[in-house]
Amino acid sequence: MNITKGEDILTLVGTERNVGEKAPDFTLNNLEDQAISLGQLLTKPVLLNIVPDIDTRVCSIQTKRFNQEAASIEGAAFVTISKNTKEEQANWCAAEGVDMEMLHDTEFTFGRNYGLLIESLGLLARSVFVLDKDGTIVYREIVAELTDEPDYNAALTELRKLV
């Protein structure tokens, strides 16, 4: 799959995941250095918010928006995944007042397993996945232009159907 960044065409590396498929398990560390697996999250529907770099404007806007929405949607888990280090994520959360679960994919294991790795830039593609409690992907958006925001309303509408 390809996306763009301005005039540049970027190829995503890894296994593309689609609606209707079981989401593959993953384990990434959070800000407390705890290993968090998808299996642990699936006690309720999950929204995976994937951003290229938390320290950039659009990624910040996107993560703050989902963090804000998390307060009004009970019975769902909201998780942000980025390539940033634990320290970068912790500093950003402290500065922005965000308390969402943050997972770091510095080795790009998640990125490859979900077909989201932009190898040429060392980033993850901006995307949103909504999973039901069984781990089935019910919504997926891989944003076609890396610098655009996702369709918040579409993702949140699908999530609300599950809670």
TrEMBL record:
Organism listed in the record: Vagococcus elongatus
CDD domains per UniProt: PRX_Atyp2cys (cd03014)
Gene Ontology molecular functions: thioredoxin peroxidase activity
InterPro entries: AhpC/TSA (IPR000866), Thioredoxin-like_sf (IPR036249), Thioredoxin_domain (IPR013766), TPX (IPR002065), Tpx_Peroxidase_subfamily (IPR050455)
Protein name, as recorded: Lipid hydroperoxide peroxidase
Keyword entries, A-Z: Antioxidant, Disulfide bond, Oxidoreductase, Peroxidase, Redox-active center
Pfam families reported for this sequence: AhpC-TSA
Domain Thioredoxin: 17-161
Highest rank taxon of the organism: Bacteria
